[in-house]
Amino acid sequence: MIDVEIRQKAFNGVQVLCDVAFSIASGETVAILGPSGIGKSTLLRIVAGIDTAFDGRVTRPERMAIVFQEPTLLPWRSALLNLTLVHEGLGDAAAREMLAKVGLANKADQFPGQLSLGQQRRLALARAFAGQPELLIMDEPFVSLDPETAETMLALTEALIAEARPSTLFVTHARPEAERLADRILELRGSPARLA
Amino acid sequence: MSDRVSVPAASLIGLLILWVVAAALTADPQILPSPVSLLGPIWKETLSGKLPYHLGQTLIRVAWAFSLAMLLGLVLGLAMGRSERLDRWLDPWLVVFLNLPALVLIVLCYLWIGLNETAAIVAVTLNKIPNVTTVIREGARSLSPDLDAMAKVYRMGFVARMRHVLLPQLAPFIAAAARSGIAVIWKIVLVVEFLGRSNGIGFQIHLYFQLFDVRMVLVYALSFITVMLIVEWAVLQPWERRVRRWRAA
């Protein structure tokens, strides 16, 4: 169970978020929908615990995973090490299995820079699921991909969520994506942004 | 591959030729002996064990001062680059120490600590820490906030975060600090030995300076330059290539 209660969040005196409160049941997928620049990413960073300068309270589980807009991999470590170094308890065999699930079975020893952008995104997805997260956070994971790659990613994410059933919070500005993946959709509107 | 060896080799041979020509024009071995005339004394000093002994003493000091300066500079630079508050407090100190002449620090260390090994190594280390700190701080300022956030959410341990997230990002800065560091450190070590030690290359140069023996000064200086070139080519450059491997792949 994840509880989010943000009374307010401001940057340099300008209020960005105000009275944003919701909870996510275990295994539930919640999408945050809203136009660009409204504060969706800020909300995610607060929920993930990256940004702690806000007025309010967040209850989050121990095991979390995050997928950023950019793959955010360790470019100086191989694909396999990108999984095993981030998740300390993860063995080589389990990491290889995870790579196979996202279609990177034969890329284990390559550096991220040798992979295509689509493959890097899939590696980031593999990293997220490899830790068997209780809470998965995704920040626009399908933007700036060509339609075909986006569809592959979407289907893959859908399958992985169905299998692992983490509580999932993801942000998007595309309603079809939200409707397809989410059990529940929350919309951010206005300035400062509130839940509609 | 061949360019990596042949160009520096040709460039060094060029320098040697320049020296031979200059020696021939000077025509006075008391002022500028030719490189060939140094081979005899180098051989003699090596056989008598004096050259290896003094070389070893200097190398030990260089190794100590280098390791200490790199370690402390890395910690300090990282802390200052990551914390703006700490940076505001310590930056004036850094400016003071950067502008303190090496000679002043050396003399003060000898006066305060005594004419001993500790004072020598502390003096060299203090001289180098500010430079290392400045370079590493620049690197720490350019660390990726996204990778930081990633490491935080996935709760990576301190050691793993250091080794696999932070240090690889700092590697080019560490390499730059190490290469400029080693060059500066051995020069300061010679001054320290010149002023207050009874062994090492600097001490020998002091001795032969007093005897006005240009040839022996060159013998000792050149042997040490050779050793440092070998360190640069056999240790520093291969290490740098190894940590840069992922860029080339």
Fold blueprint:
The complex is a heterodimer of chains A (196) and B (249).
Chain A: E1 2-11, E2 14-24, E3 29-33, H1 40-48, E4 55-59, E5 64-67, H2 79-84, H3 92-101, H4 117-130, E6 135-139, H5 147-164, E7 167-172, H6 175-181, E8 184-189, E9 194-195
Parallel strand pairs in A: 3-7, 3-8, 5-6, 6-7
Antiparallel strand pairs in A: 1-2, 1-4, 8-9
Helix pairs in contact in A: 3-4, 4-5
Chain B: H1 2-26, H2 36-47, H3 50-82, H4 84-99, H5 102-113, H6 117-141, H7 145-153, H8 158-196, H9 201-210, H10 214-243, H11 245-248
Considering DSSP H and I runs of 4 or more, what fraction of the residues of chain A is helical? 25-40%
What is the CATH homologous superfamily assignment of the domain at 1-62 and 166-196 in chain A?
P-loop containing nucleotide triphosphate hydrolases
The separation of the N and C termini of chain B measures 16 Å
Outline of chain A, from the CA principal axes? globular
SS field, number of helical segments of chain A: 6
CATH topology tier name of chain B: MetI-like fold
Largest sheet of chain B: none
DSSP summary, beta strand count of chain B: 0
User: In CATH terms, what is the architecture of the domain at 1-62 and 166-196 in chain A?
Assistant: 3-Layer(aba) Sandwich
Helix/strand-derived category of chain B reads mainly alpha
What is the strand arrangement across the widest sheet of chain A?
A: 5-6-7-3-8-9
The CATH class of chain B is identified as Mainly Alpha
- Helical content class of chain B: over 70%
* SSE string of chain B: HHHHHHHHHHH
Using only C-alpha atoms, the radius of gyration of chain A works out to 17 Å
Question: Nearest-angstrom radius of gyration of chain B?
Answer: 22 Å
The percent range for strand residues of chain A is: 25-35%
Question: Which class best fits the helix and strand makeup of chain A?
Answer: alpha/beta
Mean pLDDT of chain A: 90
- Give me the CATH architecture of chain B, please: Orthogonal Bundle
